[in-house]
Amino acid sequence: MADDRFHVYDTTLRDGAQQEGLNLTVADKLAVARHLDGLGVGFIEGGWPGANPKDTEFFRRAQTELDLKHAQLAAFGATRRAGVKAADDPLVAALRESGAPVVTLVAKSHDRHVELALRTTLQENLAMIRDTVSHLRAEGQRVFLDAEHFFDGYKSNPAYALEVLRTAAEAGADVIALCDTNGGMLPDELADIVHEAVQAGARVGIHCHDDTGCAVANTLAAVKAGATHVQGCANGYGERSGNANLFTVVANLQLKRGFDLVPQAALADMTRIAHAITEVTNVTPNSHAPYVGMSAFAHKAGLHASAIKVDPNLYQHIDPAAVGNDMRMLVSDMAGRASVELKGREMGYELTPEHTKTLVERVKDLESKGFTFEAADASFELLLRDTVAGERKRHFEVESWRVIVERTKGGELVSEATVKVHAKGERIVATGEGNGPVNALDKAVRLALEQLYPELAKLELVDFKVRILEDTHGTDAITRVLITSSDDTGEWATVGVAENIIDASWQALEQAVTYGLLRAGRDC
Ligand SMILES: CC(=O)SCCNC(=O)CCNC(=O)[C@H](O)C(C)(C)COP(=O)(O)OP(=O)(O)OC[C@H]1O[C@@H](n2cnc3c(N)ncnc32)[C@H](O)[C@@H]1OP(=O)(O)O
Ligand SMILES: CC(=O)C(=O)O
C-alpha cells in the first residue's frame, strides 16, 4: 500500500473521462485501473457510482476483477441534495454501497455557486457537507472532499471558502482537495491561496485544470505551499483543456524534488504505461508530451547532436531511461555530421568521416527536393547502405511498371498494375488488381517477388500519407508520399518524392519491400 503521508491520486476514470471524445467501457476502465496500479499511484477514482449504470457496474466488477497491489479505489459523488438527509439521498447511498474504501465528495466552496447553481443558502451548503461527510465516515468509509471552485471562491469570499474547508475537516474529511475547476489560476497567486488554506489547519490537496496551460506548474506550486495530495489524469486527459498530467507531476516531484512517490522500477516503466493507456482510450498519444512522448528525447538540431556525442546530458534534462523513454537522433536538413554519425550508430553502423560527410550532403540535397528522413528511418538506412557500399546490391531490379485506372460500365473504379522485375537471374512479369493504383502496384510487386522471397507474405502496408509540397504550383506541385509498413516484429517508414503521385508512391513502395527483405535477413 502506498505511503499515506503524500497521496498520488488519479482521476482519469472520472475527470479524465469528461474529456470530449473519450468514451470508456467498463472493461476499458478496469484495464486503465490495472495500468495505473502498475505505476504505483495511491488512489484511483473510478467514476461516479449512481450517476450512470456504467460507473455503478465498474465498482461492482472492480470488487472481484481488480486485484490492486498499490492503489485504493475512490468513488466520486456530490454532497447530499439541499433539504434531505444524507442517509436518505439515493446518490449518497450509491457511494456508500459502491464497495470503495474511499469516497471523494465534490462540494461547493464558492458563495456565488451555492446561491446560483445550488440555489440554497450558504449555511445549508455547510450542513450538506457536514452531514454527508459524517454519514459516510460513520459508515466506515474514508472521505476526501473536492472543494469545487475553491480558488475563485476564495477570491470572492475568503472567509466562506475557508469555512467550507474547516467544516469538512471537522466532520472527518481526511483531505480537502482545492480545485481550480475553471483552470484559470496562475502559480504565484494559487500558491498564496494554498498557503492560507494550509494555515487553516486542514490537510490540503490540489486538483488543477489546464485552461491556462499551467495545471502541472500550479500543482507543483501547491505542493511547495504545503499540499500533500496531488490529483491528475493519465496523459493530461480531462474536461476542456484537460487536467494536470499526472505522469508529468509524478516525474517532476520524484526526479526533481526528491519525493519518493512510486517505485523506481515503475517510474522506469512510465512511458510504456502512458502508451498502453492510449491504446485503451483510443486517443492518439501526444508525441511531444513531457517525459513520455516519442519526441521527448528526440534531437533534430545538428549542434545538439554534436554536444550529445560528447555527453548526452549536455542536451537532456534527465536520463530518458529513468522514465522508460529513449534518446533518438533525427536526421534532416538540420543535421550535421554528429547527427548522422549518432543515427548510424543507433542503427548499428560505425561510419567513417568520409561516409558521414557524404551522407550529410546527400540528406541536405534530398531534403531540399522534398524528401524527409526524420519521418522515414528506413529510407535513411537504405541511403546509408548505398553510401557505405558504393552501389548496394539489390534484391530485385525494376524494368518497368504501369498502372491503369478504369471506370467500369457499372461505375466501379478498378486499378490494374503490371510490374516487370529481374531477381535471382529471372525476369518476372506480374499483374495485380486493387481498389486504387498504389494498392494494385503493391499487389503486383508482391506477386512478382513472393515466389522468390516468401517472407514478403508477412509484409503489410499499414499507413499511406500524401503531402503536396509547393502547392502554389498547381498541377506541377511536388508530391511526397510516406508509407509505413509492418511485419510480425515491427514497423518501418519510407519516403518517395516526385511530380507524379504514383511515381512517388512507387519509390516509397519499392524501398518498403527492400527494407522488409533486409529486416527479414535476406541476402541479395
Ligand atoms: C467540477 C466537476 O467536474 S464535478 C463532476 C461533474 N460530473 C458530472 O456531472 C458527471 C455525472 N453527472 C450526472 O450524471 C448527473 O449530472 C447527475 C446524475 C449527477 C445529476 O443529474 P440530475 O439529477 O439530472 O441533475 P442535473 O445534472 O441537471 O443537475 C445537477 C444537480 O446537482 C446539484 N449539485 C451540483 N453540485 C452539487 C453538490 N456539490 N452537492 C449537491 N448537489 C449538487 C445541482 O444543484 C443540480 O440540482 P437540481 O437537480 O436541483 O437542479
Ligand atoms: C471536482 C472537479 O473535478 C473540479 O472541481 O474540477
From TrEMBL:
Q: Does the keyword DNA-binding apply?
A: no
InterPro entries assigned? 2-isopropylmalate_synth_dimer (IPR013709), AIPM/Hcit_synth_CS (IPR002034), Aldolase_TIM (IPR013785), Citramal_synthase (IPR005675), LeuA/HCS_post-cat (IPR054691), LeuA_allosteric_dom_sf (IPR036230), PYR_CT (IPR000891)
Pathway(s) it belongs to: Amino-acid biosynthesis; L-isoleucine biosynthesis; 2-oxobutanoate from pyruvate: step 1/3
Single Gene Ontology MF annotation: (R)-citramalate synthase activity
- The segment(s) forming the Pyruvate carboxyltransferase domain are 6-274
Instruction: From the UniProt record, list the reaction(s) this protein catalyses.
Output: pyruvate + acetyl-CoA + H2O = (3R)-citramalate + CoA + H(+)
* GO aspect biological process, one term: isoleucine biosynthetic process
SUPFAM superfamilies under this entry? 2-isopropylmalate synthase LeuA, allosteric (dimerisation) domain (SSF110921), Aldolase (SSF51569)
Q: Does the keyword Transferase feature in the UniProt annotation?
A: yes
**EC number from the UniProt entry:** 2.3.3.21
Pfam families linked to this entry: HCS_D2, HMGL-like, LeuA_dimer
Keyword terms, alphabetized:
Amino-acid biosynthesis, Branched-chain amino acid biosynthesis, Isoleucine biosynthesis, Transferase
Say which family it is in. Belongs to the alpha-IPM synthase/homocitrate synthase family.
PANTHER family, sorted: (R)-CITRAMALATE SYNTHASE, ALPHA-IPM SYNTHASE/HOMOCITRATE SYNTHASE
Matching entries from NCBIfam families are given as: citramal_synth
Q: What is this protein called?
A: Citramalate synthase
Record the organism.
Nonomuraea polychroma
Q: What is the lineage of its organism?
A: Bacteria, Bacillati, Actinomycetota, Actinomycetes, Streptosporangiales
